[in-house]
# Entry
Amino acid sequence: MSTDDPSHDTEQSGHEHHEVEGPGYPTPAAMRTEGGREETAYVMAPRVGMENDGPDFVGIVDLDPTSDTYSELIDAVEMPNNGDELHHFGWNACSSSCHSEGLARQYLVVPGQRSSRIHIIDAEDPREPELVKVIEPEEVFEHGLSAPHTVHCVPGGKIVISMLGDANGELPGGFLQLDQEDFSIDGHWEADRGDMEMNYDYWYQPRHDVMISSEWAAPNTYYPGFDLDDVEAGKYGDSIHIWSWDDREHIQTLEFGDQGQIPLEVRMSHNPEETQGYIGAALSSNIIRFYEESDGTWDWDVVIDEDPREHEDWDMPVPPLITDILLSLDDQYLFFSNWLHGDVRMYDVSDAGNPRLVDRVWAGGLFGDRQTVQGEDIRGSPQMLQLSRDGKRLYWTTSLFSSWDNQFFPDIATEGSLMLKADVYPDEGRMELDEEFLVDFGDAPGGPARAHEIRWPGGDCTSDVWQ
Amino acid sequence: MTDATTHAVELVGTNGRAKTIRVEEGETIVDAAKRADVAVPYGCLYGACGTCTAELLDGEVCHQTSPRALKPSSLDAGYVLPCIATPESDCRLRVGYGIQAEVVGTPWK
# Structure
């Protein structure tokens, strides 16, 4: 079966409701074992803040190892405007809509983080995606929201996007709901945001009536660059928020304080029975596990605690800066990137509260002993991660965010960032950089670009939720 | 160069090369640069993100909305946001992708 098939037939997966066909897979294991090898990647490729002028694009990367153009950027869907800062993106439908007949994983929802413009791309043919609709920023601002980030499809014909700011790029943020059919804006998803002000990423477990959202800062704080004075002033997040998914109400805040400054990516277990997950606190460089207690409230523990490190060219010890984390589809391995230090780590989380470091790959960053691949300087450091469905290939890009890149890894602004890959051996608990694989976004048609979030047609380790 | 309704704005790039554009009354410098097909960096277009941050070398500009991306100290140092700024006189501005990072600096370094 083609791994790029956007409308994976649930009947072939032995789904219990044979009369209903929907997108995705009935279970995480079905996706892992029957999804097949990824043949194509979509990669967000912003040009904001680059030396060369030009629009951002969605890059199409050939991942079919039998192809003549394997490991190459083979096409690009350019945005109609400059300045969007494509960042994260998602699907109109995923495994959460597995029971919804007639629905297909066909459209990519591609927000501009800076512009607040939202693009809809038809990816029915995985290698020929085309832009079919643009929601202009003014339409978003009308709802008192800006800075779109995480996109998840939601059972019931909706798409929900976390929004980090109000119409002025200040707090509070919220959640924007789109209609799954025509991508019109419904309005706010949330009925009551309680004391939630800052927003960033979110994940949900519909079986347990829970959604978890995290905190970056107000757009007008993080957009212009990272300033420690803003941390001192309490302008960066240190909490996550527990919501009732059904009632769309905020019900609890978990405040981490110094142990959880700038909590970014939220990854709950793929197993829909589980009521736990992990979050990477970027600045504190801790991995925090959150979980539901028997009384229905939520609690948290720091389960991985990394230290800052002295560097001869820097005045102060530099934190690792955990910028992305990811769980394998079997929930056995947790991967995360230390964007300043330069390594990507692999932990065994089969004992969820006691992660065990099993391997790491160094590539770029301030401390990587490897600073080139195929003779190309590694500009930036491991950042956005994506894992193959079978858990055997880990890919990453090296750009974080245009203004932050320009502070910490300014070469990206002139020469673009990279996409790299490690081969993972889950049965042996190790991984190795694949030196044959390199996608240089510095060679992009139309000029160098950054490279950020990665997705596969057919769903991946950060796209799908199970009912 | 100035007439009743327009101002001449000289944009000095990172490489030292300069281009002069004419900015209509009430028009932002970024809009005028786009109209003249002169490349300048920009992002949000409403003063929140700072991608367009420039240094005002000569002349006067007026921000049409609050320049939220710039701290008071940066405004005092002469940095402006061309995406929301209209010239009040003929101006010279230093523009380029690297100015934003120069304003914020690099933590820990």
In short: Strands of chain B lie at 6-12, 18-24, 54-58, 61-63, 79-80, 85-87, 91-94. The first helix of chain B runs from residue 29 to 35. Chain B has one domain: 6-104. The first strand of chain B starts at residue 6 and ends at 12.
